[in-house]
Design a protein that fits this description.
The protein is α/β, with parallel strands linked by helices. The protein has one domain: UDP-N-acetylmuramoyl-L-alanine:D-glutamate ligase (3-Layer(aba) Sandwich), CATH 3.40.1190. Helices cover about 30% and strands about 35% of the residues. It has eight helices and 14 strands. A hairpin with a 4-residue loop joins strand 13 and strand 14. It is globular and about 65 Å long.
Length: about 300
């Protein structure tokens, strides 16, 4: 059985749902509401772990390393309020996590040959740039260790990882004047890694460490609700596909499908269902063609 070691920020996602009863007689802009439900789930790196465990159950063990604050109320929390399933506002609390060097040391010492290592960095304090350098160095010293990094800030410490996943906004912060393919090529060249740039509803751009370019495109998704947690689901799909030794194009489509399926639900309340993912994969039609500039286009509907 494959082994996946994950390190990252343990967050709490809390969803409070209200039903509107009427408007306040004294203020016609203020709704009067009744509490319907108050749901608490793992967020941040924990949301990635939930999705990966669902996709890999029985085929890989997933171990999550995080700073344990013992009490639920001590973890960074994103509390989202909904009225009639409409997202109204978010309240954040306990936004920082104290760095724990023993956790980092324990994580690094736990990595073995053949492992899959995931750094899910929400930039709350669990890991810093020095930690990331140490983790990647250790992975590259061992045999056949595959490393994945999901980040909102591209740093030099990411050099040498196997896979780097960022979103379009992060890529624009990295280089505001270049398109996603040029940025993916630059990152793959500078960091010696496979680079994925997710592009929301339109799919993703990919450049491999050996300069293979792939653009995954999809039809408009009529079931979209919101994109909260889509990045975690996409990464979970990618890791699961790599563990299953799927061909590169199939792995990228699998990751993109996982990301999009997660947008059919409100936030991170529900994690991916492998049966639903596999059913969707079986139902899609993929067309492939290569343009003159060497980009392979994978279009699915």
């Amino acid at each position: 059985m494959s082994r996946v070691l994950v390190i990252g920020d343990y967050l709490i996602d809390r969803y409070v749902f209200y039903q509107q009863q009427r408007y306040d007689p004294a203020n016609s802009q203020a709704p009067v509401v009744k509490l319907v439900s108050d749901c608490v789930v793992l967020g941040g790196a924990g949301n990635f772990v939930r999705n990966l465990q669902s996709l890999c159950r029985g085929r890989a063990s997933v171990e999550f390393f995080y700073v344990d604050r013992h009490k639920l109320n001590d973890f960074p929390t994103k509390k989202r309020y909904f009225i009639e399933d409409k997202f109204i506002y978010r309240e954040d609390s306990n936004d920082k996590i104290d760095h724990d060097q023993d956790l980092i040391d324990n994580f690094i010492s736990s990595i073995k040959d053949g492992d899959y290592v995931v750094i899910s960095d929400y930039h709350k304090g669990t890991i810093n740039e020095s930690d990331i350098e140490r983790i990647i160095t250790r992975c590259n010293e061992l045999s056949n260790v595959t490393t994945f990094i999901d980040t909102n800030f591209v740093k030099s410490c990411h050099k040498g990882c196997s896979w780097l996943k960022i979103n379009t906004l992060t890529s624009q912060h990295y280089h505001s004047t270049k398109n996603s393919f040029d940025i993916a090529k630059e990152l793959s060249n500078n960091f010696c890694c496979n680079t994925i740039i997710t592009r929301g509803s339109t799919g993703l751009s990919f450049c491999s460490a050996n300069r293979e370019l792939i653009r995954v495109l999809k039809e408009e998704d009529t079931q979209f609700i919101d994109s909260i947690g889509a990045g975690d689901a996409c990464l979970a799909g990618l890791v699961a596909a790599i563990i299953d030794n799927k061909p590169l194009g199939d792995a990228l489509i699998y990751a993109d499908v996982c990301g999009h399926l997660s947008t059919h639900n409100i936030g991170t309340v529900d994690c991916l269902d492998k049966m639903k993912v596999d059913k969707k994969i079986r139902s899609i039609k993929v067309s492939e063609n290569e343009t003159s500039n060497g980009v392979s286009w994978l279009h699915y509907e």
